[in-house]
Design goal:
The longest helix is centred in the first third of the chain and has 25 residues. By secondary structure, this protein is mostly helical. It is globular and about 50 Å long. The protein has one domain. Helix 2 runs antiparallel to helix 3 and helix 3 runs parallel beside helix 9.
Length: 248
């Protein structure tokens, strides 16, 4: 796709930094949001996957920077998941999947994104429990493979798990998730490239927009921020994408 064609999608260019802002504010890279937007505008899968991964890498790195400097990162909550997720993300990235099944898997993952945005997994945990190492290794492998397969970082799945099992509070979850997404996205992108996948040069036009939104989201996310209305709007956009993916 020529870079000039992206100018034919002004709504996409407007929504991208908003998606990056909202996802970065909770420690996410935003791949599921970028993929949802690109699916709504009928972008080809060959463009969607590598574009979402590279944007994910940039925004998650920005988000992690802010949360790390706020001393919210816990290494012991990160490495058990990363040990297995990184190699399995590379493995998932090497697999070519039929467009129909790709859309079904993506739509299912987007359900997690909607649930996260509307606060179903947003309860603050005061009675935190120690991490179960075996469970973390198994969960990391599963999330990593799925991440590489469809082009996400896996944070949209990891964050509700951390919260539901009471392994981390909201701020800790955001910090751990940001680095988790960063390493998984790099691994998945390497896997994609290793089988001859090509990063579309026109995607570089989207980098500035997402980085702008990511920087603002990372900064305000580490402070007290109420963006309920924007999150609900994004949840509606994702719901539309889910409906479209399941019905085409």
């Amino acid at each position: 796709m020529p870079a000039s064609e992206l100018l034919n999608f002004p709504l996409l260019l407007l929504l991208l930094p908003i998606v990056a802002f909202l996802y970065a504010s909770v420690g996410h890279g935003g791949a599921s949001g970028y993929l949802a937007l690109m699916s709504v505008f009928a972008f080809p899968v060959t463009f969607m996957k590598p574009t979402a991964l590279i944007l994910n890498i940039l925004v998650s790195a920005i988000s992690f920077y802010f949360y790390y400097h706020q001393k919210k990162f816990e290494w012991k909550l990160f490495y058990p998941f990363a040990i297995t997720s990184v190699p399995f993300s590379f493995l998932g990235g090497t697999i070519k999947i039929d467009s129909h099944y790709y859309k079904i898997i993506l739509a299912t993952v987007l359900l997690f994104a909607v649930a996260r945005l509307v606060g179903l997994f947003g309860k603050h945990k005061t009675d935190l429990k120690p991490l179960n190492l075996f469970s973390a290794l198994a969960i990391g492998a599963l999330i990593g493979f799925l991440s590489g397969l469809i082009g996400i970082g896996g944070g949209i799945i990891l964050s509700p798990i951390l919260l539901l099992f009471g392994w981390a509070n909201i701020k800790q979850t955001a910090a751990v998730t940001a680095l988790f997404i960063f390493v998984n996205s790099i691994s998945g992108l390497f896997g994609f490239v290793s089988i001859g996948g090509i990063f579309p040069i026109s995607s570089t036009w989207l980098i500035g927009l997402t980085m702008f939104g990511g920087i603002l989201g990372g900064y305000f996310g580490t402070k007290k921020m109420n963006s309920k209305i924007l999150k609900n709007v994004l949840a509606i956009v994702l719901a539309i994408a889910i409906f479209k993916l399941y019905t085409i």
